[in-house]
Structures
1.
Amino acid sequence: MIYLELIVGFLKVGLFSFGGAYGAISLIRDVVLDYGWLSEDSVMNMIAVSESTPGSIMVNLATYVGSSQGGFLGALLATIAVVVPAFIIILTAMVILDSFLDNKYVQAVLFGLKPCIMGIILATGISMLTKNALLPVVQETMQLKPLIVAVILSLIYFGSRKFMKKKISPIMLIVISAIVGMVAFGI
Amino acid sequence: MLLTLFLLFAKIGLFTFGGGYAMISIIENICVEQKKWITHDEMMDVAVIAESTPGPIAINCATYVGYKQKGIVGAIVATLGVVFPSFVVIFAISMFLDNFLEITWIASAFKGIRIAVALLIIDAALKMVKQMSKKFVSIAIMVCSFIAMLLIDYFSWNFSSISMMLIAAIFSLSLFIIQNMIGKSNEIEE
């Protein structure tokens, strides 16, 4: 029953996605691969689209995955599921929150959660990078192009910070990477 | 009033690219400076709460402001407003993307884009790590979950990141309780 799976999957995402959009990206990727809904490549395409379109990345991804698995109803259910936990938590919070967040046990839980999430996000990024840029070198008879693209993009993105006053925005990097991709992999 | 709430939050949803943190500044601009629905201090409170609670930050803000204005109905209307535009945009894109990806140059572009996405995620994680508390326990938990997640990923082990978060939370809570019991000055309290 795909609808039920979507609801449960995205309730989990909504409930555990501390740390903003990037925490959610790691979680959604994990949940999606776990249920076997989509391939790694498709998930990354969706992340790229969700980053380049307006709105909350988490909500965008939920709509996207939901739509791909269950059409309009799937999109609707996944979106509602990812939003509901935050909605309920804030409403509850407004009544009891001040005392709740100051509670030292809650603080102790958050103290452990935060670094764990950072580790997960970092691992997600590195795993994505190696799968897209390093694995082709090993597996597909020395396919070097993805690695070269990765080096060029890192130089542009991280270099822009060192040598220019202005930082390249994520959307700008996605646009640049699309152009570099077309040049490297052919039109 | 409800219509205004819906339209303004739809506007916020439609014109903010780049996710949560970009949205906070626009919500501040509209709800605090223009409409004076909430004060600057309240806005800061929401941002802090949003950071320590799960879920999209924009949803947290919309729910808060909506509730302040019109109670539970306001909260629902504002939340729907902020979600509505991206729902429509993404749903439309999702119907066509697979066909688009069969075109060679779009597929090539996405090969490049996927690498960019990985870089963005690494960058976001590194920024968080830089600001993280540099206590031993924090760093240990970070490194352990990093290594565990990498192994899980490469070997496709059946272990979810949610279980890992639960373990980290339980570990940290037990550590805190034990330290309290033996009355030692503890690592956790800031």
2.
Amino acid sequence: MTEKASQFEAIYRANYHKVVRICEGYVNGDGPLANDLTQEVFIKVWEHLHTFRNESNISTWVYRITVNTCLLELRKKKYTKASAHLERIAEAEEDLTSTKENQLQRMHNCINKLPKESRSIILLELEGLPQIEIAKIIGVSHEAIRVRVHRIKQGLTKCVQHENIR
Amino acid sequence: MKTFDELKKDWQGQSQPEVPQDGPNRIIEKITFLKMGQRITNIILSITALLLIGFFFYVAAYNYRTVTMGLFLMVGALTVRIVLEAISIRNIKKMDVTEDAVVFRQRLLSYYKQRQKVHYLVTPIVILAYCIGFLMLLPSFKASLSAGFYTYIVVSSMVLLLVLGLFIIKQIRKELSLLRELKD
């Protein structure tokens, strides 16, 4: 295995779960679509690995690629059909025995209502990234992110509490 | 009533599938496959262009001014459209996903605005040139083809134009909606 391949494998294993969850946030929690997006993200990681200059944390770099790739790939037809996933869930809502699952779907539904940039910010916040890292990924000041995270957090909590999937 | 921190905890605690064991290898294989696909597309486009040029000389179209002009307009219009699409695909593939999200979003916005210019300005000219070229060829078609085949060509090209037009309209509407989403 080449040095690049082993470095890539380490990055893949360390960041896979977070990348999948962020991607799910862009496609209303649709697992198969999120997996396709995840694959696109790691293709970009491989293609740009030689440009990584250790100026930031490698995971910050990977999440930046994740946010941008999700934005880029959403133009493709299969991803615009992600809303069909929510409809399927709404139809099967009675079958969702677990309240936790139900709540996660409500979260996806609420996240989906946010503008694209706010969506990226809250998905990174939900993954527990420090706000200074989120600021680096989004490209705004730490102070601006702090204010925006606070506002989006309030909106999301209110939405999850009151929103039904239907 | 759950607080945001509780929601965050639930979010992070959601069940996750195992990291695919062969995931990294599958990605490296897919990249090799994609590169091969691009090479095949380039070969097919080059062969098509060569065939069209070959056909032009085979039927000695250069002896007939109107036919030459008609063919030139049709092939030229198609070529312009294909080249513009190829440039557009290359530009979007070249976008640097490692930039921060604000800069990246701005680049994506400029990309779609550029696409709108192509859709609203270049595409109608291309379609018009294609139609004029076709109309120029019609007299020679009528002179050299049977009445049935001539009618078939006229009807089928109208259907083709209609399908192509609908496809382009759909594409423009999709890109406009993406542009609106990016702006919000």
